[in-house]
TrEMBL record:
<keyword id="KW-0413">Isomerase</keyword>
<dbReference type="GO" id="GO:0016853">
    <property type="term" value="F:isomerase activity"/>
</dbReference>
<comment type="similarity">
    <text>Belongs to the 4-oxalocrotonate tautomerase family.</text>
</comment>
<protein>
    <submittedName>
        <fullName>4-oxalocrotonate tautomerase</fullName>
    </submittedName>
</protein>
<dbReference type="InterPro" id="IPR014347">
    <property type="entry name" value="Tautomerase/MIF_sf"/>
</dbReference>
<feature type="domain" description="4-oxalocrotonate tautomerase-like">
    <location>
        <begin position="2"/>
        <end position="59"/>
    </location>
</feature>
<dbReference type="InterPro" id="IPR004370">
    <property type="entry name" value="4-OT-like_dom"/>
</dbReference>
<dbReference type="Pfam" id="PF01361">
    <property type="entry name" value="Tautomerase"/>
</dbReference>
Length: 61
């Protein structure tokens, strides 16, 4: 049972998340040989002020 956790900046639409979950699920089925019913995708929306790269907050960009 793959559990796939996706962290991304907040603001993506449900349609985008739906499409991405479908694509991730299809990839897991094709590569891992599992069933679609066994694939779980969990989204965590993150504020830009809670994410930093190279020591710089994304909210400062």
């Amino acid at each position: 049972m793959p559990l796939i956790q996706v962290q991304l900046f907040e603001g993506r639409s449900d349609d985008v998340k739906r499409e991405y979950a479908k694509a991730i699920t299809e990839a897991a089925v094709n590569i891992m040989g599992c069933t679609a019913a066994s694939v779980d995708v969990i989204y965590q929306d993150v504020k830009k002020s809670d994410w930093a790269t190279a020591g710089k907050l994304w909210s400062d960009s």
